[in-house]
Design goal:
1 helix, 8 strands, 8-stranded antiparallel β-barrel
């Protein structure tokens, strides 16, 4: 199994930090950390990397197509240390992200 770890910080509210794990073998994402309960109603789903960097990565539930969150600039070719902005759509919270490991 291959995993990417994405560290995130909400731009508002407390707590601010949360982490995303992307399982690249089966395209499943999970979220955890201090702000996960406050920001995410959906804590597990599938994700898609898009070729266009401005679209980046979208997180959706395991079933359905409603976008849970977007990570602008996070693509399949991103490198460890790459950074960007994101939006949690369930709670309308903006955040920053950094690709911590892959």
């Amino acid at each position: 199994m291959a995993f990417w770890t994405v560290l995130c910080t909400a731009k508002s509210g407390t707590p601010k930090s949360f982490g995303l794990t992307l399982n690249t073998d089966d395209d499943i994402w999970t979220v955890g950390g201090p702000a996960a309960a406050r920001l995410f109603n959906t804590k597990l789903g599938r994700y898609d990397h898009h070729v266009i960097p401005t679209i980046g990565t979208t997180l959706v539930p395991k079933t359905g197509s409603t976008v849970v969150a977007t990570l602008d600039g996070l693509t399949g070719t991103s490198n460890t240390g790459d950074k960007g902005n994101g939006k949690q759509h369930e709670t309308a919270v903006d955040f920053t992200w950094v690709l911590d490991s892959k």
